Amino acid sequence: MSSPSPPPVLLFGYDASTFTIKIRHCLRLKQIPYTFIPVPSMLPRPLFTKTFGLTYRKIPVLAIGRDIYCDTSLITEALEHFFPESEGYGTLYPRATDGRDHRGLVRGWASYWTDRALFRVTTGLIPAAVWRTHFGVDRANLIGHPLDPDKLEAKVPENLARLDTQLSILEPQFTDMGEGWIFSTPSPSLADISLFYQLQWGRDIAKGRLIGNLTAGGTSDTAADGADAVFNAERYPRLWSWYERLERFMERLPDVEHENAEWEGVLKGLQESPALGRKSLLLPTPRNGHVELDEKCGLREGAVVSIAPDDTGRSSPTIGRIVALSPEEVVITPVELKDGLAQVTVRIHFPRVGFTIRPYKADTEAVAKL
């Protein structure tokens, strides 16, 4: 008897999205075949609301069959769990050459340094032409305050100096590395991918590459000097050598991305895909959820909650009913939106780090027709 085929893996994003680039690299490193579904860089995204009942506005979003994962900090964990090294896939968490497991440190490196502190610096290198398009209005709504293109343009030298500070901090990490990788692993880990994608995107965006895609044609790509003054082989030779070595490593890996898929066929495949079983609903954690604390916060199975990032995008929460909860993850089924029922019955997974989860204050009728 043949084993059931694995559920489809879909990555929703756009080419100029920093974090879409991160997950593309992770999928290639792990050699997981997937289909890339382009979505607009700005709202509205009816594909999400109509297909999944998902109002979350950040990108990327990953689907493993009918389970939807939001935020790259959780997406990477899902990829590692459902596509393990024991089944022939690559790993985001190779052990160090001395046998130590640095997974927690690597996750923190990504979540608290490259994805936040370093990202705030690289976004400061975006050319002012971008902020003068409708993209600037959209991101002002995301952030929650107006963006002044002239002031942002004047701050680019300051942000280049901040990038130089980050690179200066990083350079000693690569001393005597040889052919190894960050945290002394024999192959690249999520730590390498997380630093690489930020530097790669930062270099490109500072030069004016990708800005046509970023603004949906609101401006055109350019070829400025960008960050070359601070990130180059002479100023930071060890970091530069590692960067070029990882670039070559990734280029040699087989491409696992399928593009230009016909959406109706993809949608049919999703609708027919079996949901991940209850046993696989939550990603593994060292301990189960702290039921007493969660209940004091109004978080229990069946409760209707509002979930939103704790930094930007707080004005576009996702409302749903809790299906499962762990110390690191919350899984919900979305409530019916004003447009009606979603085309695909899904479960939506969010990380608890970086997100605010609170009971939704509304009467039953309002919840049903939100």
Short synopsis of the structure:
This protein has 370 residues and is an alpha/beta fold. It has 14 helices and 10 strands.
Characterization of the model:
This protein has 370 residues and is an alpha/beta fold. The chain is 39% helix and 14% strand. The chain contains 14 helices and 10 strands. It has helices at 18-30, 46-52, 72-82, 103-123, 128-131, 134-143, 149-154, 156-170, 190-207, 211-214, 237-252, 263-272, 291-296, 364-368; strands spanning 9-13, 34-38, 61-64, 67-70, 257-258, 304-309, 318-325, 329-334, 347-351, 355-359. A 10-stranded mixed β-sheet has the order 5-2-1-3-4-9-8-7-6-10, covered by helices on one side. Helix 1 (18-30) links the parallel strand 1 and strand 2. Helix 4 (103-123) packs parallel to helix 9. It is globular. Mean pLDDT is 92; it is low at 363-370.
